[in-house]
Amino acid sequence: MDDDGRTETGEQPHAPEQDKLLIEWLEIMHPRLARFEDFLTPREVVTDYSRDSLVSLERLILHRWPDRHAFAQEQDTDFTDGATRYIGETYLRIAGGGWFVNHDPKFLYSGRLCILLDVEMPVPISPLNLIITMLSRRTGNVLTRIWDGQTKNVTERSLTEPGWEPKREPFPGAIPMSRLSSALTPSVR
């Protein structure tokens, strides 16, 4: 370890309290998702973890906030937490993988909840950043473009590796930091 607390690979060591916070967040995943689906979204919003549900959720978010600045001022952390969970879990259901938080200041999404899918050359996905991107672009297809791309990745890998299926991290769904470092490409570390 260097004088500034970094490891030989240049990363800051992962603190146990950070692991603990992530595990606690993951352990209440199902009740928080149920709350989001049953109480925080209108009935017309589809919540079946399908591609259509992402269309429906993106439409709701675009209707709720006129831009990313209004979203940044939002005080309803309950909805934001639920949307973060829902988006991440929807992608994890099609492509496997798990959740992580990397607190290295050099990491693209430092300190944010991210998922890493079980696909070739995985790229971290931050659901919160996707919400901000949706509100900046306002195209209505941010979430479905990722769905389509990841579905294609899963299909292609299944064809080249017979018998392969995406795997979810075991409960509670956190990716161990020891495995995470080797999975991330240098451009996103």
Overall geometry = globular
What is the number of helical segments per DSSP (H or I, 4+ residues)? 8
Give the amount of beta strand, in percent.
under 5%
Order of the strands making up the biggest sheet: 1-2
What does this protein structure show overall?
- This protein is mostly helical.
- The protein has one domain.
- It contains 8 helices and 2 strands.
- Strands 1-2 form a two-stranded antiparallel sheet.
Topology:
Blueprint: H1 16-27, H2 29-40, H3 51-64, H4 68-72, H5 77-95, E1 98-101, E2 113-116, H6 127-137, H7 142-160, H8 177-183
Biased composition (Basic and acidic residues): 157-170
Biased composition (Polar residues): 179-189
Region (Disordered): 157-189
Supply the key terms.
8 helices, two-stranded antiparallel ribbon, 189 residues, globular, mainly alpha
In short:
By secondary structure, the protein is mostly helical. It has 8 helices and 2 strands; from the N terminus they run αααααββααα. The protein has one domain.
